[in-house]
Amino acid sequence: MNFELTDDQQMIQSAAREFAQNEIAPVAAQFDESGEFPVKTIQQAGELGFMGIEIPEAYGGSGLDSLSFTLVIEEISAACAAHGTIVSVNNTLYGVPLLTYGTEEQKTTFLTPVASGECNGAYALTEPQSGSDAAAMRSRALLSDDGSHYVINAKKSWITSGPVARYIILFAKTDPEATGSRGISAFIIDTNAKGFHRGKTEPKLGIRASATCEIELTDYECPVEQRLGAEGEGFRIAMNVLDSGRIGIAAQALGIAQAAYDAALIYSRERHAFGAPIGSFQTIQNKIADMKVRIDAARLLVYRAAWHKMESKRTGAKYTLNGSIAKLFASETAMFVANEALQIHGGMGYSKELPLERYFRDAKITEIYEGTSEIQRMVIGRTETGLR
Fold it and tell me: Concatenated DSSP letters for 155-220?
């Protein structure tokens, strides 16, 4: 078993770290405070090839592997988790379904500009009344009498990059009579088309620079050519895409945890109390040890999930279980480490003068979106027992 990164992976990791620390870290607090979308730095990410890491060069991407994607998200999220969210969604929730299920024409038209960083993509599954129970959606897409287009009426919530996205992968029922997850189809939505409306931008606790909003489609006419995959295949597409997205969120959580740990380690050496560095006290050393062990374990699980994703392209094997394990452990590690790091900093950790309170706020969302910790435990438990 080889734990060494390849030369190409080390190179992309170094490039991502340099970009994150030199360009993102200096402005992270500013964008967290304002809640504005970081247009300039996201454009720079696109120029560096980070908005379509696993997308082939033929479609505007960098043509790299899944572990390279994970390394980039980890490094960017260590500087600013909001940037990590934007880059991850563009790559996984938007890029993966188009690359996997899109026609050649769809890839050329709708994937290339997003993967190259020319514009942003988004993913619309959640609705106001259906979060974890995604199959209970009320959005409808009815085929026109002449069969040329679908008329879509839908309301979606918590759409990451919704306020700025040019294209969105949206899920709606094409067979209203079908029960459960059946009868759902996927569509590529052009937000410039008539009938598309953006709602309020959410005032979030964390990842504030990652713009999130409600969207509404009213009698939106979507050409049949913009249906993604076969009719009725939407729920399967949505769940398969989340497998990939969860690895991205696990990498984001890992980056947050590492940043919080690094800050705590430095502070424990520099802060003196009772005539000695606080890092020399057993209580602080125990905290450092617990944080270090969890981060190392999380990193191995996240990288393993990325490896299984790479293998799936060769073997066709699913990597759902490994993605859920990585997402569950890494997100809970991020929350644990952020909390311990803040505690080590004492009152200064509670102040906005330091980034600890931002790490703490940003860490929480990793336990919630793209499948809560409760959902991950359900996926893992069902997979292990074979029972539903």
Answer: EEEEEETTTT-SEEEEEEES-TT--TTTTEEEEEEETTSTTEEEEEEP--SS-TTS-EEEEEEEEE
